[in-house]
């Protein structure tokens, strides 16, 4: 087994746990990159180990800090509840059972400014590394180890080839491509990891394609 020094030593962080604090903060910060607009409330459903030790390990402080954009190494994490109040952001926590999900998992239900909701499920998998497993009911498996493009579109013939053609035209090389959908002929989602940074204007290009509903650019530096 190959184990990196990053996994042994853990990330630079405000402790005590790379999984329960640093990973939790990074996970919830990553979740906000999926949102289409600002949010007013977030409800955290804690699963497994998160549900059992969330207060003692500061997982609650870390999750709130992450959605506020506070990084895991920032001492302001300890003041996240106060900062949320100052910004008018409300939140709540509750235990939940996500089945066979990773022990350090959370479901985050965001209430957006227009009253709509976005639901994101993810896990802190160790050493500060994270995994977003679903976005509004669609499987995603986003790690953000590489520049990532999330494209949501109508599940019909030719859509994926058009998306890939636009990326090729923009000289973006695909490293990994994963596809998922809620049901046949419904909404599909492609998670595209690339070999280089993704230019911001590719989003405008993709959402102009007939059948593409949304395109989200996720850069490792943001989480």
Task: Write up what this structure looks like.
- By secondary structure, this protein is an alpha+beta fold.
- The protein contains seven helices and ten strands.
- It has a six-stranded mixed beta sheet. A four-stranded antiparallel beta sheet has the order 8-9-7-10.
- The protein is globular and about 50 Å long.
Q: Uncertain segments of ≥5 residues (pLDDT<50)?
A: 1-14
Output the helix-strand order. Answer: HHEHHHEEEEEEHEEHE
Give the distance, in angstroms, between the N- and C-terminal Cα atoms.
27 Å
Separate helix tally: 7
Q: Strand percentage, roughly?
A: 25-35%
What is the rounded Rg? 18 Å
Report the helical percentage.
Answer: 25-40%
* Strand line-up of the largest beta sheet: 2-1-3-4-5-6
The residue-averaged pLDDT reads: 89
Strands, total number: 10
**Structural class by SSE content:** alpha+beta
Describe the biggest sheet?
6 strands, mixed
Shape: globular
What is the topology?
Blueprint: H1 5-9, H2 18-32, E1 39-48, H3 49-53, H4 59-67, H5 80-87, E2 90-95, E3 104-112, E4 117-126, E5 129-135, E6 138-142, E7 148-154, H6 159-169, E8 174-181, E9 187-194, H7 201-207, E10 212-218
Parallel strand pairs: 1-2
Antiparallel strand pairs: 1-3, 3-4, 4-5, 5-6, 7-9, 7-10, 8-9
Helix pairs in contact: 2-4, 4-5
Summarize this, please?
The protein is built from seven helices and ten strands. The protein has 223 residues and is α+β, with helices and mostly antiparallel strands.
